[in-house]
What does this fold into?
Amino acid sequence: MRCPYCGSTNVIWDEERGEVVCMDCGSVIDRIYVLREDFRVEDSRPSRSRGSVRLSKTTKEFLKLLDRVKSSKKLKDKAVIDTTNFFDYVNGRRGRVKIIKLSTPYLRNLEKDKDISVVLELISKFPRLKSRTDRAKVALAMLTISLVKGGSINVSEVSRVTGLSRMHVRRLVKELSSQKTFMTEVRKNLIRFQQAPLPAR
It folds into this structure.
């Protein structure tokens, strides 16, 4: 099934409410009603949720996150909700982390920057840094490049690009100050990368 509003095929059936919901834009695409033996008239009354439809806890939580992404200038058009992590969170299997991620096209555009791709590859070798969200890893790469090249750190710019709060970016700067081995590796690799000869045509 494809969402008629955004074209996504990432749709689920909310069995509790009998609704088919698009996980990318949050639209209710269809309603599949199943009359249960324990059905009561009160079940069909409108609630104080969106419109006259009673939404399940899962759908309400998802729509709340979706509203956050859409209303945030930092996240709009850059971020998506990771559905696997979202369901793990709703079902109590994880905390509310790594649910909002940079969208793949936006992340790919950032990763095209050669310096950022070199640093991201190095981050994958350091468990403490590797465990961060995709947005935080990109922020770490941007901050590391600024530090290695001797430039000033622009917390506001990193926050704007990645959608992280300024406080989160400041915490990442502090984290980098304790990662001496990582910083040394980045310096070596960026210098090696910049001195590498261009491939023959």
About this structure: Residues 121 and 130 are 10 Å apart (CA to CA). The chain has nine helices and five strands. The chain has two domains: 11-35+55-102, 105-195. Confidence is low (pLDDT under 50) at residues 34-52, 196-201.
